[in-house]
Amino acid sequence: MEATHHHTAKHRLQAWLLDQAEAYMHRKYGARKRSIFRQLPRSVVEIGTGPGANLRYYPPETALTAIEPNPAMHAPLRANAARWRIDLTIRGIKGESLDLPSASVEAVVGTLVLCSVNNPRQVVAEIMRILKPGGRFFFLEHVAAVTGTRLNRLQTLLARPWRWAFDGCHLHRNTHLVLGQAGFAALDMDCFMLSSPAVMITPHIFGVAVK
Ligand SMILES: C[S@@+](CC[C@H](N)C(=O)[O-])C[C@H]1O[C@@H](n2cnc3c(N)ncnc32)[C@H](O)[C@@H]1O
Predict the structure, then answer these.
(1) All structural domains of the chain with their residue ranges
(2) Closest-lying ligand 1 atom to the alpha carbon of residue 70
(3) Over its length of 211 residues, how does the chain's per-residue pLDDT go in tens digits?
(4) Whole-angstrom distance, CA of residue 140 vs CA of residue 169
(5) Ligand 1: which residue has its CA nearest to atom 14?
(6) For 9-210, CATH number?
(7) Centre of ligand 1 from the C-alpha of residue 54, in Å
(8) Is residue 140 within 6 Å of ligand 1 at its C-beta?
């Protein structure tokens, strides 16, 4: 399933950038990730794992199925899995169409990924499909600022160049609404403003959705 050749320069750049950002993300998101990931079961599916920024928060021996379409992420992901003693399976596919049976998994994780996928509603529908009843989706995402604010206007202005520069990342998606409308039985969602010099990605949501 893993293609470790034919990486484009852009794919490689993206993988390298994310690996560089790992220490920063750990400082910025670590406490919040720990607070929700501590409830994770032994077996987890993660959408858009990248090089594996979340692996340090998973209990050692976690059985992780990583959905990661960019093959340039796979080598650093494997290295991180060895480092954090994670039992890793990589699927080089997109979150819009998962090759996992319906109602088969207890937990799905996604961080900073619904900003980047082609179709967030479809990805959330797929997450919903593969979760068992009572299964949980753990998320952390940057989102659109409140409509009408200066920050929202800035996001609109920067959206296109940002998307070009950061591999399809959308600055102002209403991911909170997508999650709210997905039909989860319960949605425990917190909003926070990340203190960051990159003001356009300060508004965030994180929490747990239960099927
Ligand atoms: C901004 S990175 C975040 C990586 C990691 N989750 C983190 O928190 O650092 C977005 C990741 O989503 C992946 N991705 C992009 N489109 C995707 C899709 N349609 N389905 C699944 N993953 C996707 C990218 O290859 C990349 O690894």
Answers:
(1) 9-210
(2) 25
(3) 444 456 788 888 888 887 778 888 899 999 999 999 999 999 999 999 999 999 999 999 999 999 999 999 999 999 999 999 999 999 999 999 999 999 999 999 999 999 999 999 999 999 999 999 999 999 999 999 999 999 999 999 999 999 988 889 999 999 999 999 999 999 999 999 999 888 999 999 999 999 9
(4) 14
(5) 48
(6) 3.40.50.150
(7) 12
(8) no
